[in-house]
Amino acid sequence: MHKALFIFLLICLSSAPAHAQERYDKNPSELITKFPFTQLTGGVILIKALFDKIPDTLNFILDTGSGAISIDSSTTVEFKIPNRPSGRTVSGIAGIREVNFAPGNSLHFPGLSVDSLDFYVNDYDILTSVYGIKIDGVIGYSFLSRYIVSIDYDNMMISVYSQGSFDYPRGYTYLRPIFTALPIQPMIIRDDRKIQSNFYLDTGAGLCFLLTQQFLEDSFFLMKKRKPVIIQVQGLGGKKQMQLTVIKQIQLGPFKFNRVPTNILDDELNALSYPFLGGLVGNDILRRFNIILNYRQRLVALKPNSRFHDPFDYSYTGLSLYLENGKIIADDIVKGSPADKGGLKNGDIVLAINNNVSQNMAAYKSELQNVGSTIRMIISRKNKIEMIKFKVGRIF
User: Fold this and answer.
1) pTM of the prediction?
2) How far apart (Å, rounded) are the C-alpha atoms in residues 122 and 378?
């Protein structure tokens, strides 16, 4: 699978609330509701909810890497949702953006209505085009801090509990992250040397692991023999090139993962707060656990699930796919990549991959994930049909 589809969602550092207050509740927590979710590229969680009195179900990404809650600007236009300038900015991997504010709204899940939510307004068109499905918003701290939330990847279910004393199921390991609205976990990582640093736990990032270039330059952590490849990613503020490599090991609590695909970000705007943090852990790691999030008690509980031993994706094609006006477009072709060497050009319309004519974005991503396989891509270029062939490379 080409890594240009790895999305780093909103990191609302400038709009994040103050440190969460730790409380101990004597009253027992009670189950409020359960509802299903689906997964996008990299394990990113997509849930459906109703916004205020709008009758249409909207699509939201559940994101521990968001210090607030937000809604897409085109959704506010479509449904005439009132909003106004907020005087706030949010920062992400590709820029800083001023955002509008839609205060005092509500979200309705099956069996649960959440009132008095203040939404920031952001442009998620690029996420919609990458995932091939309308993204209406991101649900972060404003929701997660009100409840105890269990994410069951085995059964693709989210359970929401009231705050209170919680009876954790057997088999879970407890982490005690630092909370600045976003959970920050101290971790040990290894490559040329062993280092401990802090990392966001970010369910909204469809990747395994990310380090900042600034962290690498100061720590001399990466083995000199590593030769990262160039990829294109999309996030808040637009598109940005990154590097992609593999590091020897990361350790999350007692759990160790070897030969981990790792993105390297030149974090010019310091969205990831270096030197306090070295980067983030994405959902291609976190999806390997069933997770219980208890923000009030500053606790994250993990239990390895049936996906714990899934192989990592080491494939590399050097292309991005976007859904534009109902067509799947190849773009952001990296010079010297397998796609580039095979003759693919920016703007080519993808008609089929390996005899798959479904026009299904997820299916096409899967076709691009098999290292060493030959891709036969039927494209339309200037109204002419052509066959493009290239082999899927690997990042090490």
Assistant:
1) 0.90
2) 35
CA pair distance 276, 168, nearest whole angstrom:
31
**Residues 200-245: tens digit of each pLDDT:** 999 999 999 999 999 999 999 999 999 999 987 765 556 678 999 9
Containing H/E element for 252?
strand 238-252
For residue 275, is the peptide bond before it cis, meaning its omega torsion is within 30 degrees of 0? Answer: yes
Asked whether 52 and 106 are in contact (CB, 8 A), the reply is yes
Tokens 């401990």, located at residue: 196
Amino acid at 54: I
Length of the chain as a residue count: 396
What residues pair up with 362 in beta bridges, in sequence order? Answer: none
HSE toward the beta carbon, residue 266, CA cutoff 13 A? 8
Cα torsion for 36, 38, 43, 47, to the nearest 10°? -70
What's the pLDDT score for residue 97? 75
Q: Distance (Å, rounded) from C-alpha 13 to C-alpha 16?
A: 5
Q: Which tokens go with 137?
A: 């918003």
Q: Phi and psi dihedrals of 281, rounded to 5?
A: -100, 125
Under 8 Å CB-to-CB from 77, ≥6 apart: which residues? Answer: none
Residue carrying structure tokens 């992250």: 177
Q: Do 230 and 224 touch, CB atoms closer than 8 A?
A: no
Are 303 and 293 within 8 A, CB to CB? no
What Å distances lie between residue 73 and 80, 94, 133, CA to CA? 10, 18, 16
What is the rounded radius of gyration, in angstroms, for the C-alpha atoms of the chain?
21
DSSP state string for 306-369? TTTTPPP--EE---EEEEETTEEEEE-PPTTSHHHHTT--TTPEEEEETTB-S--HHHHHHHTT
Tell me the average pLDDT across 161-172: 96
